């Protein structure tokens, strides 16, 4: 994929999402969009209409020092082979203590199990997710979620 | 000497000899041991494996099944807490007995000049078919008594299959009776001295054979105990010697039906070897048995609804055709 | 891992069936199905029984130790799991392996793709009751595992790729042995497998028009790999974002239009053919040169360097144990045998990754159980399970 096309997509997206969100380039065909939680669904819908049709990963990263959890949706396209060369990271920051975010299930049904796993292992509650139950851990699990940084593996 | 004579007389009397020795219990045991060994060896050969080997290594592991049976014998019989215990334990035993009952009326040639038929009646074909339909009922009862969802579903499958294979099975058997004008199997066999029924009415033979394959759950109709979704179907909860029994039942059933098949379609004990006509019969039976178990290496299994469809659409039609054919032939000859 | 029953209303017509984790066909997972007669009205996959916490363990391991760790996600697809991580790590380190190493990586990945698909065939075969098609593909993996062993020294978990290159060069006489193995597989695949299984009327009856996944649904649910391509989506990471030596190799994307179970199997058959084609090209056009980046070649001791020049086996430099990639975020994707594998790694310039996110293809395909089996017949469950080539340990990580 040539640089021109990435920059064209970049410009398109920039004009489409600003000022609600910020877009930046991570590397040759990786773009990052950062937005706030309440604008997340709006931006997601815009991106879906632009042609990004599925989510590859939901990555939640715990930053106990800054008291935030960063949630990244890696999104791309199967239909549009030009867009499928790009992996777009849709990033949002949430409060670590509350750890509630908005589910993007309505926009991309492919997030279903990815968000469930994130809820299970990182303890991020996704509002409006159809099945906010545990996937891997026992259902009555009460301890610190294992992927949080304060969960220590026994040495 | 008199006592020996007496014992010999009792033993060689058809009503003892047939159910106990040939073609009854002991023969069945030997044939099943050989058959399962052959099934596993043939499948292993096809599948690039060695198959059973370690028990009696010199003979290629021929006694493997005997070793397994011994192991079953000494294993604990586990009955689950919620099962209907009496029926749970009784039904495999009754099923086994019921499976062997048709042997009483199925003739098996003659050995040392003794006619091997325990009970000669002029409706022996009807009797054999009626007695053979007892086993599935006990298989269904097994699944119900186990109180296990997989067992229950397996029993229901057996019930569904039963009605779809029994009708073509009986119709095609009766078409043979029409053809030979008799319900006595001995008469039917004697009628085939010159030409076998399979050559006159191949439709009947085909639908009978496929129905037998279906009723004894051989591949591609191994649906009742289909292990990839039902674990072991109606036999799921059985362990130790009871498991040995329930696993033996389909093989015994296959043997009984094959005996009937050979009598009805493959000329029974003809061509005769004087005094030892049973040997001809048993060779034919072994060939058919080997073919039936060989199917395992070739076919996956059909889905339940597909098997039922085959039963009603193809086999039922074929058995009707075979009856029509028999009637036409009778009409033409007369 | 659910501990309570599914929350549906009690319906006297239906029974609730728990399939697994100890069941002949469930694999290391559980399914909760509701059966009405012969139809599954609802079918829920319940994974997590072989969860090993690779993501968490990775946060506590040094960068180089993670190479064997991520392989454990799918042991029979180890090379593809390996290359995904190593590519991500190389992006962080900003290093590019030499061309010969790229070709060797591709070679091992394709061998792994074939063995993984053969494994999938075997499982699919036994699930619908064909014991012969269970044994054959499993046995036929052996020649390929043998040639993989010639390259790497291990049968399954190779840990062959390291940042900057690979650990070993090809041994003498490798090409002849590899070509022989490929010829054998090709003959088996094109003749024997079709005669015993793919052209078998029973197989066709079980697979055709069963578990149909439409193109739009496949995209909507984010399905990956052969399952996606069987629904007529021509998405293959090897073409979309070529890595290793794929840009220089010629191959086609295998795809089918029907989207049923049979199409999913045929896609795998075609992928094996394409992999054989790729391996043949690699064996013909393998470039000469080093197998490890120059920068790392200088780091090893003199004794190890001599051994490397003599035998082609590169001992790991001791400095790898204190590898500190610069801080940053990197996302890599590769086409593993079962589909697209994603690594999303956050580095803070420490000895260990701050966060390693690994999304395996099986995990993204897990939703297929619910979508395809709900509404299907009970006996379709093993057929569909076999056809989507789902591998619980890979999904659980």
For the structure shown, list the relevant keywords:
heterotrimer, A: 155 residues, alpha/beta, five-stranded mixed β-sheet, 3 helices, B: 334 residues, mainly alpha, two-stranded antiparallel sheet, 15 helices, 2 strands, 1% strand
Describe it.
The complex is a heterotrimer of chains A (155), B (334) and C (397). Chain A is an alpha/beta fold and 155 residues long. Chain A has a domain at 3-97: Beta Polymerase, domain 2. Chain A has helices spanning 3-17, 40-50, 112-122; strands at residues 22-27, 30-35, 54-63, 68-76, 87-95, 100-102, 125-127. In chain A, helix 3 links the parallel strand 6 and strand 7 (125-127). Chain A is elongated, with a radius of gyration of 16 Å. Chain A starts with a helix and ends in a 28-residue tail after the last strand. Chain B has 334 residues and is mainly α. Chain B has one domain. Chain B is 67% helix and 1% strand. Chain B has helices at 2-12, 14-20, 25-46, 64-74, 85-100, 124-132, 135-146, 149-180, 185-191, 197-200, 202-215, 227-230, 240-265, 277-294, 304-333, and strands at 110-111, 114-115. In chain B, helix 4 crosses helix 13 and helix 13 packs across helix 14 (277-294). Chain B is globular and about 60 Å long. Chain B starts with a helix and ends with a helix. Chain C has one domain: Cytochrome-c3 Hydrogenase, chain B. Chain C has 17 helices and 8 strands. In chain C, strand 6 (328-336) and strand 7 form a beta hairpin. Classes of the chains: A alpha/beta (155), B mainly alpha (334), C mainly alpha (397). Chains in contact: A-C, B-C. Chain A binds chain C through residues 1, 26-27, 29-30, 53-57, 59, 61-62, 72, 74, 78-79, 81, 84-85, 87, 89, 108-114, 117, 121, 133-140, 146-147, 151, 153, and chain C through 1-4, 47-48, 51, 53, 55-57, 60, 91, 218-222, 228, 233-235, 240-241, 329-331, 333, 340, 342, 344, 346, 354-355, 357, 359, 363-364, 366-367, 396.
């Amino acid at each position: 994929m040539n640089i021109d096309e990435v920059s064209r997509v970049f410009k398109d997206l920039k004009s489409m999402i600003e000022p609600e969100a910020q877009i930046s380039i991570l590397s040759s065909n990786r773009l990052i969009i950062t937005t706030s939680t309440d604008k997340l669904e709006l931006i997601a819908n815009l991106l879906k209409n632009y042609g990004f049709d599925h989510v590859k990963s939901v990555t939640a990263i715990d930053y106990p020092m800054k008291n935030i959890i960063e949630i990244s949706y890696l999104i791309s396209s199967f239909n549009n082979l030009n867009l499928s060369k790009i992996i777009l990271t849709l990033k949002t920051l949430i409060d670590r203590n509350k750890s509630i975010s908005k589910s993007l299930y309505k926009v991309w049904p492919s997030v279903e199990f990815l968000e469930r796993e994130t809820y299970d292992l990182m303890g991020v509650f996704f509002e409006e997710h159809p099945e906010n139950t545990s996937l891997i851990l026992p259902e009555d699990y009460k301890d610190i979620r294992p992927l949080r940084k304060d969960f220590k593996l026994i040495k | 000497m008199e006592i020996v004579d007496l014992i010999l007389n009792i033993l060689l009397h058809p009503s003892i000899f047939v159910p106990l020795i040939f073609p009854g219990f002991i023969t069945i045991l030997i044939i099943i041991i050989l058959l399962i060994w052959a099934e596993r060896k043939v499948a292993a050969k096809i599948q690039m494996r060695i198959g059973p080997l370690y028990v009696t290594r010199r003979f290629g592991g021929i006694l493997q099944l005997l070793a397994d049976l011994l192991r079953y014998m000494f294993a604990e019989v586990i009955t689950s807490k919620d099962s209907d215990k009496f029926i749970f334990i009784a039904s495999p035993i009754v099923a086994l007995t019921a499976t062997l009952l048709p042997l009483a009326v199925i003739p098996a040639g003659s050995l040392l000049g003794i006619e091997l038929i325990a009970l000669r009646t002029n409706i022996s074909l009807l009797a054999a078919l009626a007695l053979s339909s007892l086993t599935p009922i006990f298989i269904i009862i097994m699944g119900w008594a186990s109180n296990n969802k997989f067992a229950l579903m397996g029993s229901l499958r057996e019930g569904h299959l039963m009605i779809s294979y029994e009708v073509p099975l009986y119709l095609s058997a009766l078409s043979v009776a029409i053809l030979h004008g008799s319900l006595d199997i001995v008469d039917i066999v004697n009628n085939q001295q010159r030409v076998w029924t399979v050559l006159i009415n191949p439709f009947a033979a085909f639908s009978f054979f496929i129905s037998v394959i279906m009723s004894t759950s051989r591949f591609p109709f191994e649906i009742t105990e289909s292990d990839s979704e039902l674990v072991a179907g109606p036999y799921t909860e059985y362990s130790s010697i009871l498991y040995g029994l329930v696993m033996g039942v389909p093989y015994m059933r296959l043997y009984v039906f094959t005996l009937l098949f050979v009598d009805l379609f493959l000329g029974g004990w003809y061509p005769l070897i004087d005094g030892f006509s049973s040997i001809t019969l048993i060779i034919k039976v072994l060939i058919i048995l080997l073919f039936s178990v060989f199917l395992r290496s070739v076919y996956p299994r059909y889905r339940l609804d597909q098997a039922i469809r085959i039963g009603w659409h193809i086999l039922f039609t074929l058995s009707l055709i075979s009856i029509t054919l028999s009637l036409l032939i009778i009409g033409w000859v007369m | 891992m659910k501990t309570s029953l599914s929350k549906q209303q009690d319906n006297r017509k239906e029974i609730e069936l728990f399939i697994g984790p100890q069941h002949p066909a469930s694999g290391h997972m559980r399914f909760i199905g509701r059966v009405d007669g012969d139809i599954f009205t609802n079918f829920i996959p319940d994974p997590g029984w072989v969860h090993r916490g690779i993501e968490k363990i990775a946060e506590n391991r040094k960068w180089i130790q993670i190479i064997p760790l991520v392989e454990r996600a799918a042991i029979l697809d180890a090379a593809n799991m390996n290359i995904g991580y190593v590519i991500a790590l190389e992006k962080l380190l900003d290093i590019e392996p030499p061309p010969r190493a790229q070709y060797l990586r591709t070679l091992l990945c394709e061998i792994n793709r074939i063995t993984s698909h053969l494994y999938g065939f075997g499982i699919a075969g036994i699930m619908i009751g064909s014991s012969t098609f269970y044994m054959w593909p499993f046995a036929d993996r052996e020649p390929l595992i043998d040639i993989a062993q010639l390259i790497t020294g291990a049968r399954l978990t190779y840990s062959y790729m390291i940042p900057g290159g690979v650990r070993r060069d090809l041994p003498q006489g490798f090409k002849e042995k590899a070509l022989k193995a490929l010829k054998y597989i090709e003959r088996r695949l094109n003749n024997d497998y079709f005669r015993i299984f793919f052209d078998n009327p029973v197989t066709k009856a079980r697979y055709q028009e069963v578990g149909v996944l439409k193109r739009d649904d496949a995209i909507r649910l984010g399905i990956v790999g052969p399952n996606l391509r069987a629904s007529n989506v021509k998405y293959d990471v090897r073409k979309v974002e070529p890595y290793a030596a794929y840009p220089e190799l010629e191959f086609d994307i295998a795809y089918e239009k029907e989207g049923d179970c049979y199409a999913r199997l045929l896609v795998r058959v075609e992928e094996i053919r394409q992999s054989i084609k790729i391996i043949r090209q690699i064996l013909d056009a393998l470039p000469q040169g080093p197998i490890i980046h120059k920068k790392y070649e200088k780091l090893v001791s003199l004794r190890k360097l001599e051994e490397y020049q003599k035998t082609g086996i590169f001992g790991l430099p001791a400095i790898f144990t204190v590898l500190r990639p610069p801080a940053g975020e990197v996302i890599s994707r590769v086409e593993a045998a079962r589909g697209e594998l994603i690594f999303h790694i956050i580095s803070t310039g420490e000895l260990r990754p701050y966060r390693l996110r690994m999304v395996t293809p099986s995990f993204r395909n897990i939703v297929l159980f619910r979508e395809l089996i709900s509404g299907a017949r009970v006996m379709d469950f093993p057929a569909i399970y076999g056809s989507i080539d789902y591998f619980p340990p890979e999904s659980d990580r």
